[in-house]
Each structure stands twice: as C-alpha cells, then as structure tokens.
Amino acid sequence: MNKTIKYISFGMLSVFALSGCSDTFLEDKKNYDNVNGDIYNYEEGCDGRLNDLYAWSLPDVGDVTWKVPSMGNADICAKSTEEYTGFSDFVNPEKELNTMGSTNQVPDFLMGQQNNIQEAVYGRIRNINDFLEHMESSTLTEKQKNIRIGQAYFLRAWCYFNLFKWYGGVPLVTTVQEPVAGEANNTPRSSAKETKNFIISDLDKAAKLLASETMGGGWSGNDWGRVTTGTALALKGRVLQWWCSPLFNRTNDQKRWQEAYNLMKPELDSIRACGYGLFATNSNINGSDFALQFLQSGKNPEAVFVRLYNNVTGDGLDNQKNNVWERGIRPSNTGGGGKGPSAMLVNIFPMKDGKIPAGTGTYTKLETSQYEYVAGTEDGDGETVPFLNRDPRFYRTFAFPGFRWAYNGDASLINANNPSNGKDYTLWNYVWYVDKNDEGNPESGNSYGADNLLGSKQGIYIRKKSDDLDVNSSALYNYVAGDTKGAAPYYSAAPLIELRFAEVLLNLAEVACMAGHTDEAASLLQQVRDRAGVPAYTNLSDQATCMSAILYERQIELAYEGKRFDDMRRWLLFDGGSKFGTISGAPSTWTLSGWGGNTCTWLGVKEFNGQRRESISFRTANKYGVGATTFDSDPLLKDAIADKAAAYVESHEGVTLAQAKSMPEVIYAAAEAVRPSGLDLRRDITDQQETLAEWYAENLVYQLKRGDGYDSQHNLEYISYRPNYYILGMSSGAQSAAKMLPQTIGWQSYPSGAAGTFDPLAE
C-alpha cells in the first residue's frame, strides 16, 4: 500500500486522488458508500474504499458522540470527572436521565440518524461489512487482500467496542443491511460476553492478517498511521481489561484476570515488534518528552492508534484535515478560546517526589508527599502557588499566570492590544474587579483578565497536548491572523493519539496486579513514571494499594485524553458499586460481591458522588484596588503605566499623556518592569518557581470560583451519578427505530413505560 491516510477524503475528489488507473470503472458514483463492485479488483479502488472507512471510523477531536469517543474536551464524559467543573447530564443532581421522551433524554450512542448511512451508528458497520464481502471475491492476490481485510476487521471491532462500553450487549450485524428504520432492529441483542467475544475475534483476525506486513517495525512511509498487528492487540488488551473490571465482573472472578494476563503479557512483545514503545529523547527537561510525544508528525512509537491531521488550508479542500484542539486550549489573546481545569484535579496532581499531596483525602492508601502543599488562602496571606514542587507532568498539563507558553504566530495582528510575539509569549491571566464587593463572591463574573484577556479568561489553562514552540521547534500549529481560508488562522497538523503505548503498559499493569503479580505491575507502572521523571513508590505489594496507584497514574498520565470517565465507570468510582440493589428489576447477580461490596472502600478512593468541583482564579492583591473594563485599566500596572507613559510623551512629539496610557507598547513596557520573567520550562525551574512564588505572595490573591452548580437558593449542589447510568438504556428514538430490541434493566421501554428486561451481564 502506498497511499497516505493523512489526507482522508469524503467525496469524489478522493477517488481520483487515490486512483492510479482509469477512472471509467467508477462510473458516476458520488462517494464510496455506493460504488461499482469492480473497484475491489484494483488496489487503488480498494484503498479508496478502505480510506473512506478510516475516515468514518477513526477518533476525532471534538465532543463525544456515537461517532467518536471522548478525547479531552469538556463534554458530557469529561465533565463527569475531576477534569472539569460544571454538572454534565450524567452527574447533575437536578436532572435524571430517562428513555421516555425529549426531556432529559439519555444520550443515543446506538442508533443516530436513520435512513442515512453516514449518520447512523450501524451505517459505518454496514460499510465495513460491505467492504469485507467484496474483498472476499476480489481478484487481488491473497496478500493484497489480507492486509486490507485485516484493517477492516480492526475498524469493525473498534466500532463495536465503543458500543460495548455503553451498553454491554448490542446487536452483532455481520452482513450488509441497509439502515432503513434502524438496521439493528432485525438482529437480536447479544449479551455483553457475546459482544466481547465477537470484538476479540475480529481483533485476533486483524492481528493475524496484518502480521506479515507490520511486525517488522510497523508501516513505513506514507502508510504510517494505519492500524497494525500491535494496534489490534493493544485494543484487545483494553477490551479484556473492561471485561475483567468490576462493571462487568461483579464477583471479581479471578479466572478473567488470569486469562487476560496470560494473553496480554506475551502479546506485549508483538506490540513492540510493530515499532511501538514509550516515546523518549536524550534531552528530557522538565517533562519535555511527555509533551513532545503528542507532536510527532512522523513515525512515533507512542502512537499505537492514531489519527493524523495536516495543516492544509483552503475553502473546503477535500484533503484539508486540521486538528482544532490547539485552537480550543489557547488563550483568547493568542487567538484561541481556552479551557480551564477544576481545582480538584490541580490539587490531587502528584508532587515532584511522585506522591499525592497531603490532605486531599482522595487516595488514602497511597503514600503522601514530603513536600508541603497549601493550595492558597483567600485573605491574601500564606501560599498562593499550587505550582511549587510538582510532578513534571503538572507543568505540561496546566498553565498558570507567569508561565511561558510559546507558539508560532503573532496575535497582535488581529488585535493590537494582544501580546505581539508568539515565540516569547508568557501567559498573564490574573484578574481584577471593577467593584470591591465582587472580590469575595465566588459567583461573580465581574472580573477582567490581564493582557487583553478581559472577559474571556480562565483562572488556569489546560495546556495538555499543546504544540509548545519551546518543545517543538518545527511548529505543527500556526496562528496566521487575517487568513480567512478554511480553518485558518487556527490550523494544526498535530496528530491525535487515541491509544498510547503508556496506556498499553498501564493496561497490562492492571491485569497483572489483579491476577496477583503486584511486583510485575509495579515494574510496568514505573516504566511510565520513569519517562515522566517521577520517583518510584516505596511498596506496592498490597494488591489494593497497587491497584489504587495504577488508577492514580492513569488519572495523571492520561488526563485530558478522554480516558478518566471510562476508568471511573469500569471501577464504579462514583459510588463504589454499592447501589446496584436499588435499581428496579436488577437481578441478584448485579450486586457487587467482589471487592468487599464497594470498590472505593477496597481501593481507598473517595466516592465521587457527594463531592463538588470548583475553579481557581488569581486576582490582584487588595493594595491595588479595583480597575475598569478596558485593556489599559490593569490596577497592578497603573503606576508603572503612568511612568512609562510620561517617558513616552517626552520622546514622542504630539502624543498626549492620555493617549500614551492606552498604547500597547507603553502598557507592555510597564508590564515588563513590574512582572517577573515567565517560568521557562526549557531550563531548571527550581529557582524560577521560588521567584514567581514570591511575586505571587506580594501581588496576587488565590481564590476559588464557582465551578459546579448551585440550586435556585444559591445553596451548593453535589455530584450525583445514578447506578443505572453505568450501563445505558436505549433512547426513545433508538427504541422507535428498533422496536424488537429489549430495553436494558433499569430503564423504561418506550413508549409503554414498562421496565426494561434485558440483562447484558447474563451469560
């Protein structure tokens, strides 16, 4: 195969781009969903059809839908975890999801739009089945067919895995059916075990068929990015991990863990044989390798399952595929929008000795750090610097006021008040208020951010997966102000890694731990921590402690990659799994009998239900007073601005003092005189941290701002995840389209309202 999937297409242009022979056999088909069967006798035609399957099946940057899993945005999944604030539908105490109508409707991950192949969940499965059927009768050689069939089997397994996660058991469609009134309504609903076995079977087929082509180091050249034997085996490990986890393994059946371990351990060698391993360089500084792994446009050992992007721009060009993550996380004064983390995740991030900060009460069986951690006080006294002495990944996951965060571009070209030099950009996002009475009000939004952030600001920024110019000098993200073509000025070619090699190691560590091999689990865990520059735990011989450490490591290593909600569901971390008996109609087999009846208690992890998340902000100290709503009204800089403006007037004829005080060059000159240089992660940060911390103590006040909701009386509300949410029911739309499919226990059947009867856990 010699055609890249970096430029995946959806329409007719891709047919010609991927075709090296006469295009007459294509007739007048508009896309690859409806093609003449003769294309399967040509490598170019097969590749065009296969690339189209990739296009509709690969993960993508964006909120979770039936099409793509959660990838780190503040979507319904991530906002149900420690990563973001604000109640999602899954954890809202005032909103209970149902399957009976449009109000508070459960998300539909099973059907999608009917009578539309491209917008129906089973539509892409239909297209994969169509490809597999036609490839069997293709006149290509067996080798040519096998390497393409293997990829299709993987893609089908991937589609079914994303259904399995939500519903346990789903209809297993293996032949071409048109998605009229819901394709799945003609196929019975399989159990979770049958669905799991089907997915594993497809992945085993994919691994075997792709072995000859990919187990010598993986794909090369333009084929890099396609799935391999290693990709199939890595996803297989994830499926087995789900099957062993408390969600599907209520009795803690040790046979499951041992069987998974026996399969996954030797398959790690096969995954490595495909060229995968932890990404590392010889110049890891302050976690730079951790950051750089997300920015490899070429072959990357970390990227076991990846979607590639490009920075092609144009007015809807067919080969234009840009990654919009960077646009989402960058501050508004660099042309972005910005994403803010919850204080909860910031507070539980490890210290630089690799241990959890004392006092969080989250992982009680883990060792607490020797480093004192004080999040801050709202009276302006004491420490206000959560960034002191943290795990190197902390600085690559979050950005605070005074953190250097370089990028390729100049945002002042679109707004003269924005900082002008992207390659030397430092984030200054402290705020001031226009009314003193608002300063102590966590609900007040009457604050304005420095450096022209004004009303569009975050107290802390998420910078995970950022194309930091200090880390990646060959920028994949380019901010080009004034370019109106396509996705510009926000286009990025940074790849999206759905399954990293670090996760492969952590998946194996989990099954090793639960199969009784805690020493091996600790060794696998430490491989991930070594790459991050984090010391080892002292003792993980206790199984519950070891498993707790693995879940903690996953939470930190994989933060903002869309994995935390899955882990919380797998391990029942919302309520420990203690509430299944409250589900109407739930059989006794649903009761959690393993792990002492409560996974949270067994792990020493605080139940997520009953907690709430807040945001963090830093405001100017009381001595500076209030400011106004404009760029030039930063009270922290007012004296320096006056001095610089006076000097500017003396050296520039015809400029008044009032004019000079509002000029960006004057204000930024004043800022340079008042604020320290930014925390520069390119060099040792020990002294830099102390310098910045001293400046914080003198000039800023730490404050908690409203994160999760309040009720109508402004009383605090708390997270509430219902036990029936662990395995979803089918929405009313899905039930209408698939009338023969039984509803899941714990949910109502539409339109009758009868209790669901389908038990996905039954074998």
Output the radius of gyration: 27 Å
Strand order of the largest sheet: 1-8
Q: What class do helices, strands and sheet pairing give? A: mainly alpha
Low-confidence stretches: 2-32, 376-382
Largest sheet: 2 strands, antiparallel
Give the oligomeric state: single chain
**Which range best describes the helical content: under 10%, 10-25%, 25-40%, 40-55%, 55-70% or over 70%?**
25-40%
Q: Tally the helices.
A: 21
Question: On the 0-100 scale, what is the average pLDDT?
Answer: 91
Shape: globular
Distance between the termini: 42 Å
How much strand content do the residues show? under 5%
Q: What's the number of extended β-strand segments?
A: 10
Kindly list the characteristics that best describe this protein:
two-stranded antiparallel sheet, 763 residues, mainly alpha, globular, 5% strand, disordered N terminus, 21 helices, two-stranded antiparallel ribbon
What would a concise description of this structure say?
The chain is mostly helical and about 775 residues long. The protein is about 35% helix and about 5% strand.
Can you describe what's shown?
With 763 residues, the chain is mainly alpha-helical. The protein has 21 helices and ten strands. The protein has a two-stranded antiparallel sheet with strand order 1-8. Strands 2-7 form a two-stranded antiparallel sheet. The protein is globular, with a radius of gyration of 27 Å.
